[in-house]
């Protein structure tokens, strides 16, 4: 129910009651309030009641709609004391008695003028929200000042308690949040709420808009909202309006603050621990970003926009998901209740520029002699395993090794998330598939490895062996697919052999350990070990040959290795690459066959 008073300049006021939640104002018949004056448009304005709020909306009138003497450009929440001017008329809200009682009761419990405005209830007209369904309701019930007061109260509380009951020393002191960051996040939430009100009240059919029109119309809406807020002195001076508009747009339609990180070529990984903490990796070093999300709901909205286009879901029943962005970047997301502090996102960016062995030599990952040896291993069809920890650069090294494969060979790649960038023409790339919403339709790496054996490959490249597919990979290496390659997670060449044993046991085949080790020793020829050091640098720390078995043990022989010699003044790792002097068996065979090989690379580097 809406009750209003209308008065013309110099005239008496009249009260009108309407048994509905929306009334229209204009000059012609069909409006609820007809104001027959030339400075009133045919359809001038509309007043809408949603929950406990009254909102006035100008309908692109010629002379405008004013609230307290200021022209409005976006939906404006008004109170009983506000004066709405339409032409020569002044309109004020006069709520029903029962509504007043309800508001008075609420005022006795909590101040009425508090905090960030809530979004209107959009459930009545869900079709108007369209692509904005991922905007979660943000109901901040305290103002920025109150939040800061609560934060300061919490900060002072431990001091008061410490005198009577000391806190355990193992509990770290919480770092005080920057009040400007909190204030800016609250401002973003406020603009978000008004944006949804704006789109809802404008009756926009968002589903019918293409992406470009959607971004254009949304940007215009955000600019109208921020302009109105500037006029009402609701935005503090230090806020950059253009940055605010961009941040709201990115969080509403894009990936929020992640957009800037994904566009920065110097950033390799992005880690969202929770809405107020984002770490980035640049040049191998982790740093805390000054950018944040406005809320956990905003992080959830970004996750939904990532997983929805590829047919995956994330909710309490499926709280973890792996996905891939359009540019090929890998994404892992995990949400509460598993992620205690809030939704968490980890993105490993996909490098658009294909890195070559020359680039690795330039970065100091290996030497020129080591690169020549690795090239000869690939061309001589040695089965290679690239071993290393998470983020050590295994996939990059595997990609560089794959570049040495001659063009005339048929290559089949199998990956969990497509990352390899091979330039050969005779190439088939396969990617695994997770279960669908019903929990069916999964195609695992092992299924694909088995299938590619029927595709007449010359070489099989598995992006990463994690489980039972290791057995199928070893069998392929032992049955005519020489020159195949894969990666495993392990810290040393010896550990990689143990990992292979474990993964073969995961296949479900009841094989004795000796049989597994014989399979490994006959299948694997070369292990390339890669490590990521504390300074962020990545190096190939060992290249080893599997030489066979002695009793129950697989024997290894280092050919090259990295000898660390401390740190320099800037904290960077110092060291040098060393040749063990051992010449692998296949080099002797190549030399005996009269093929050109460079034996100088085995001299001390």
Please give a quick description of this structure.
By secondary structure, this protein is of the alpha+beta class.
Please give a handful of descriptors for the protein shown.
605 residues; elongated; six-stranded antiparallel beta sheet; 15 helices; alpha+beta
Walk me through this protein's architecture.
β7 (65-67) and β8 form a beta hairpin. The N and C termini lie far apart (87 Å). The chain is an alpha+beta fold and 605 residues long. Residues 96-101 and 110-174 have low confidence and may be disordered. α3 packs across α4 (211-231). The strands form 4 sheets. It has a 9-stranded mixed sheet, sandwiched between helices. The protein has a 6-stranded antiparallel sheet with strand order 2-1-11-10-7-8, with no helix packed on it.
């Amino acid at each position: 129910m809406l009750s209003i008073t209308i008065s013309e300049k110099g005239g008496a006021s009249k009260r009108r009651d309407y048994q509905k939640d929306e009334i229209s104002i204009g000059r012609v018949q069909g409006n609820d309030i007809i104001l027959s004056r030339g400075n009133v448009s045919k359809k001038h304005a509309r007043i809408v009641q949603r929950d406990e709020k009254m909102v006035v909306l100008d309908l692109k009138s010629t002379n405008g709609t004013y609230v307290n003497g200021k022209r409005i450009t976006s939906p404006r929440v008004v109170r009983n004391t506000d004066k709405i001017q339409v032409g020569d008329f002044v309109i004020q809200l006069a709520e029903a008695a029962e509504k007043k009682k309800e508001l008075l009761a609420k005022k006795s419990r909590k101040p009425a003028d508090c905090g960030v405005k809530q979004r209107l209830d959009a459930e009545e007209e869900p079709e108007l929200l369209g692509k904005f369904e991922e905007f979660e309701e943000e109901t901040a019930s305290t103002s920025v000042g109150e939040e800061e007061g609560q934060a300061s109260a919490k900060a002072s509380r431990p001091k008061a308690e410490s005198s009577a009951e000391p806190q355990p020393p193992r509990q770290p002191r919480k770092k005080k949040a920057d009040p400007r960051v909190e204030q800016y996040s609250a401002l973003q939430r406020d603009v978000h709420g008004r944006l949804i009100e704006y789109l809802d009240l404008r009756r926009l059919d968002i589903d019918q808009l293409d992406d470009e029109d959607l971004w254009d119309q949304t940007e215009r809406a955000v600019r109208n909202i921020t302009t109105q807020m500037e006029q009402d002195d609701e935005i503090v001076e230090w806020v950059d309006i253009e940055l605010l508009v961009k941040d709201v747009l990115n969080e509403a339609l894009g990936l929020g603050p992640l957009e800037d990180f994904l566009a920065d070529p110097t950033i390799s990984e992005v880690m969202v621990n929770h809405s107020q903490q984002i770490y980035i990796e640049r040049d191998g070093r982790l740093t805390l970003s000054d950018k944040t999300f406005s809320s956990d709901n905003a992080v959830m909205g970004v996750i939904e926009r990532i997983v929805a286009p590829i047919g995956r879901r994330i909710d309490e029943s499926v709280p973890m998901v792996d996905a891939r962005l359009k540019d090929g970047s890998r994404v892992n997301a995990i949400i509460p209740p598993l992620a205690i502090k809030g939704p968490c996102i980890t993105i490993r960016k996909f490098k658009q520029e294909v890195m070559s062995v020359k680039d690795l030599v330039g970065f100091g990952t290996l030497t020129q002699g080591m690169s020549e040896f690795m090239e000869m291993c690939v061309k001589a069809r040695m089965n290679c395993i690239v071993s290393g920890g998470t983020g050590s650069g295994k996939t990059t090294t595997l990609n560089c090794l794959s570049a040495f494969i001659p063009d005339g060979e048929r290559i089949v790649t199998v990956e969990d998330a497509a990352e390899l960038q091979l330039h050969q023409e005779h190439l088939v790339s396969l990617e695994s598939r997770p279960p669908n919403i019903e929990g069916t339709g999964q195609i695992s790496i092992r299924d694909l490895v088995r299938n590619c054996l029927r595709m007449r490959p010359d070489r099989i490249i598995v992006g990463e062996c994690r489980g039972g597919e290791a057995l199928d990979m070893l069998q392929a290496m032992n049955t005519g697919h020489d020159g195949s390659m894969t990666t495993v997670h392990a810290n040393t060449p010896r550990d990689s052999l143990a990992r292979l044993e474990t993964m073969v046991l995961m296949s479900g085949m009841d094989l004795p350990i000796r049989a597994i080790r014989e399979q490994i020793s006959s299948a694997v020829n070369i292990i390339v070990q890669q490590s990521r050091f504390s300074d962020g640098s990545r190096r190939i720390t060992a290249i080893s040959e599997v030489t066979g078995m002695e009793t129950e043990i697989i024997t290894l022989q280092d050919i090259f290795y990295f000898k660390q010699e401390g740190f320099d003044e800037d904290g960077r790792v110092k060291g040098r690459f060393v040749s063990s002097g051992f010449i692998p068996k296949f080099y002797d065979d190549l030399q005996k066959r009269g093929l050109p090989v460079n034996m100088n690379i085995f001299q001390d580097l």
